[in-house]
């Protein structure tokens, strides 16, 4: 990939840190996104419909849960980046399945549970969802979780509601987080498709990540066997270990989203003519392009280092929080500049920028807002918690 940075947005050739086999995997993902997803992305987004027919093709890439099978964090990060360069909606679907759902089972499940579910999830024969956020709670989810779990013999009874749960309308397995009425601790449960008392209703009228099937979930006397309780999930601290990993993944998402926007803006600037020459020849357009590229490059450098810390085993909450807060803020700036370069054409899907602008708003907010992630970093550097 050396020397390709100017064309594909990796200006400092960070992808050269991957080994030969890893580069081949990333290239396969890039080809899949370009050939299979790019041609259908706008239509799926417009119709707010999920293209289920591409899942078997995606499964052939053999990248679902790769991070749970010994792959480097750098490789999995670049996979996330490549998906977001083309379609943040498909990337979010994949992240919920591979990162949040599979990550919960891989990190907090028993050996029996991992053997029961992970192979079929890796093959994408079973799709996962992750249900933590609630209608009345977002940033205060650690203390304000209202969904309850009550044990009755070898069964747990779940009651409550969840919101914004990606994949939940069609997922085969949904990891539901609930507070144990007996000890007040948050525990995780794998609810299988068709379980009585579990109802998922699609959220309509979204203006971002429209292809993702987000749902409101209602749990009414939903009975789950003890064998489906995640053995290693004994409190919210355990839940946080999963969020630490996926929050870093969202930073990679942000880099991919703004890289895709930059590449499209650069291409458009070379094609669009005004006053008898391409707008790429004008100083103010070049300035905007360089600003976009600067945001991409600085953010990519941050997430590459984040991956190195993760692989070295010295990765902390504040590291992922800083990356999520910084990279998503830079993404929001970059896609705005891309839209500015395209002027009115930037809000039309046909020109390849509109989805990035809209989808960036969702990426900016989920997995912890900028403010909450800033407070996580602030607590680490000052020694004082400023949470209310």
Keywords:
single chain; 388 residues; alpha+beta; Butyryl-Coa Dehydrogenase, subunit A, domain 1; Butyryl-CoA Dehydrogenase, subunit A, domain 2; Butyryl-CoA Dehydrogenase, subunit A, domain 3; 3 domains; seven-stranded mixed β-sheet; two-stranded antiparallel ribbon; 12 helices; 53% helix; globular
Short summary:
Residues 20-125 form the Acyl-CoA dehydrogenase/oxidase N-terminal domain. The protein is α+β, with helices and mostly antiparallel strands and 388 residues long.
Please characterize this protein's 3D structure.
With 388 residues, this protein is an alpha+beta fold. The chain folds into three domains: 5-122, Orthogonal Bundle (Butyryl-Coa Dehydrogenase, subunit A, domain 1), CATH 1.10.540.10; 128-234, Butyryl-CoA Dehydrogenase, subunit A, domain 2 (Beta Barrel); 237-382, Up-down Bundle (Butyryl-CoA Dehydrogenase, subunit A, domain 3). The chain contains twelve helices and nine strands. Strands 1, 2, 3, 4, 5, 6 and 7 form a seven-stranded mixed sheet that branches. Helix 5 packs antiparallel against helix 6 (111-122). The N and C termini lie far apart (47 Å). The model has no long low-confidence stretch (mean pLDDT 94). Residues 234-381 form the Acyl-CoA dehydrogenase/oxidase C-terminal domain. Pfam families: Acyl-CoA_dh_1, Acyl-CoA_dh_M, Acyl-CoA_dh_N.
């Amino acid at each position: 990939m050396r020397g390709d940075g100017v064309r594909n947005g990796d200006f400092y050739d960070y992808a050269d840190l991957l080994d030969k086999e890893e580069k081949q995997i990333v290239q396969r993902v890039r080809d899949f996104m370009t050939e299979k997803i790019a041609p259908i992305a706008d239509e799926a987004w417009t119709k707010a419909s999920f293209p289920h027919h591409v899942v078997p093709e995606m499964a052939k890439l053999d990248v679902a849960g790769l991070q749970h099978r010994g792959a480097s964090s750098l490789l999995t990060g670049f996979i996330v980046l490549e998906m977001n360069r083309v379609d943040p909606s498909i990337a979010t679907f994949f992240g919920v399945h591979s990162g949040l759902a599979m990550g919960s089972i891989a990190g907090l499940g028993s050996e029996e549970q991992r053997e029961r579910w992970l192979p079929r999830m890796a093959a994408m024969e079973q799709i996962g969802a992750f249900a933590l956020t609630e209608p009345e709670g977002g940033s205060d989810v650690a203390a304000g979780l209202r969904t309850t779990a009550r044990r009755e013999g070898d069964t747990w009874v779940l009651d409550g509601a969840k919101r914004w749960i990606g994949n939940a309308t069609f997922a085969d397995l949904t990891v539901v987080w609930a507070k144990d009425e007996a000890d007040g601790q948050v525990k995780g449960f794998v609810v299988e498709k068709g379980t009585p008392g579990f109802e998922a209703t699609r959220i309509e009228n979204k203006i971002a990540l429209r292809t993702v099937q987000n749902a409101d979930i209602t749990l009414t006397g939903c009975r789950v066997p003890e064998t489906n309780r995640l053995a290693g999930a004994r409190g919210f601290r355990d839940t946080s270990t999963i969020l630490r990993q996926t929050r870093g993944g969202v930073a990679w998402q942000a880099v991919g989203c703004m890289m895709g926007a930059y590449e499209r803006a650069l291409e458009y600037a070379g094609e669009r003519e005004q006053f008898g020459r391409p707008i790429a020849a004008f100083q103010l357009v070049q300035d905007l392009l360089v600003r976009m590229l600067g945001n991409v490059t600085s953010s990519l450098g941050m997430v590459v280092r984040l991956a190195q810390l993760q692989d070295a085993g010295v990765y902390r909450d504040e590291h992922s929080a800083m990356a999520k807060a910084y990279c998503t803020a830079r993404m929001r700036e970059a896609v705005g500049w891309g839209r500015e370069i395209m002027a009115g054409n930037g809000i039309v899907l046909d020109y390849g920028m509109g989805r990035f602008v809209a989808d960036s708003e969702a990426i900016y907010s989920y997995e912890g807002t900028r403010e909450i992630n800033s407070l996580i970093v602030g607590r680490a550097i000052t020694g004082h918690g400023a949470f209310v």
